[in-house]
Amino acid sequence: MTRMVQWLVMGLVVLMCCGDSGQLAFAADTSTAEPATKQVESGAKQIGQGIEQTAQGVGNTVVEGAKVTGKTLQEAEKSTQPQVENTWAKVKRGAESAGASVTHFFRRLFGH
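-> structure tokens emitted (112 positions)
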């Protein structure tokens, strides 16, 4: 570094230590930034409320969907109940018939 740059750097360091440059840095007008900051804060709050409302909407949709599904399953159960009973009766008669056939086969086989 040249002597001139060294003196310039030392002068800036001295100014910073004394606080003169600190006053210069804080002399900027922040009054125009405050409304923008508040606008960002307001927008963030609105986004937060929007997210909350969206989450509530999703939750309500899930709840209502579960209710509809439950009702649909109950209706399906009611409509299939006679078919299930009819099928069970057929299976029961088939098993009784198979048992009678097996009994008849062994009786004929052993002569009883």
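Helices lie at 3-18, 20-26, 33-110.
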